Amino acid sequence: MSAGPSPIVAAADGSALRNPVGPAAWCWYVDDSCWAAGGWSSATNNVAELTAILRLLEATNGTGVPLVVECDSQYAINCATVWIHNWKRRGWQTADRTPVKNVELIQAIDSALEGRDVRFEWVRGHTGHPRQESADLRARTFAEALDAGRAPNAGPGWRG
What we know:
- This protein is α/β, with parallel strands linked by helices and about 160 residues long.
- It has helices spanning about 45-60, 75-90, 105-115, 130-150, and strands at about 10-15, 25-30, 35-40, 65-70, 120.
- It is globular and about 45 Å long.
């Protein structure tokens, strides 16, 4: 992180009921007044995790403030920070020359990270981490509302 303004610290999480064929949702969470969620009638947990990161990057774009993304998905963090370099070099193929799964989301994350001061921190899920638990609850509640045919709460969005 660069010197200067304090970073935005936010959790990003995804939830999938009956993964991979049930309702799924994503959430990013800064605090009770600054969070957003969304979802689909059917998606995977990995899609939800990656989407949470992408939507957080989009919401905070243009702030000029460093961002710390807390995430319990090592898959999503590795996609955005480690594996992406070789995938790009290989034309978005894995080491065994198969197409990268969720490539559209990963490419969008790559673009959204360009020129940004972003650090990812892995946090163990379901261990009482306040922001992560809040993101998890809101993502799961959104997916459950979709499953039950209720209108889900998409949150207040970015307050900045």
